[in-house]
Amino acid sequence: EQSKKLVLDETFKKAMEVKQEMEKTKESVSALKDEEAKQNVLIASTIKQQQKDLELKKKQLMEQRKQAARKEYEEKIRQEILLYKEREAEIQRLEEQEMKLIAKLRNTQNLQKQAFEALEQALQSPGSVSYTHLRAHETGRNLVCRLLLEKKKSQVAFSNYSL
User: Fold this and answer.
1) How many CB atoms sit inside 10 A of residue 106's CB?
2) Separation of alpha carbons 148 and 119, rounded Å
3) Sign of CA dihedral 15, 17, 18, 22
4) Which of 15, 66, 108, 163 has the fewest CB atoms within 10 Å distance of its CB?
């Protein structure tokens, strides 16, 4: 019996030692789990912070792109406005030049009309028209009229001699 008791005591001691070791192991596993959980929380926090940083950088990049696009658009508009103003100024200049040319044309037409009227009068009237009078109506454009009149005079003179 005593040997049974000794065996029992030893078994009990070993069981108690095993129990104590199991409790230490449980505590160490629990401590490791707690440490791992802390690390996981830290990693998750770091990941969240990195995601926030990336989102912020993404927003900043998008804003920079928007600003660059806006500046480019505004520059294009400014260039188009300048081009429009230049074209308007050119059109205005051409219209003014056209008006001057129209006025010159009207003046020339009036001078030609007067010269043709004088020529018709000279050709229809039996009396002679002075050379000075014809030269007063002469312009570069109606020089032909004077030459025609002189030709007509010479033909009239020639026909008078041949009769």
Assistant:
1) 10
2) 9
3) positive
4) 163
Q: Rounded to an integer, what distance in angstroms lies between the CA atom of residue 108 and that of residue 143? A: 13
Is 149:123 a contact under the CB 8 Å cutoff? yes
Phi, psi of 128 (to 5 degrees): -90, 155
Determine phi and psi for 147, rounding to 5 degrees: -65, -40
Q: Average pLDDT of the chain?
A: 84
* 87 backbone dihedrals φ, ψ, rounded to 5°: -65, -40
pTM (whole model) above 0.70: no
Sign of the Cα pseudo-torsion (29, 31, 34, 35, in order) = negative
- Taking only the tens place, the pLDDT of each residue in 17-56 is 999 999 999 999 999 999 999 999 999 999 999 999 999 9
- Amino acid identity, residue 61? L
Residue bearing the bigger pLDDT, 110 or 65: 65
Residue identified by tokens 């030709």 is 151
Whole-angstrom distance, CA of residue 69 vs CA of residue 67:
5
DSSP class of 77: H
- Which residue has better confidence, 159 or 31? 31
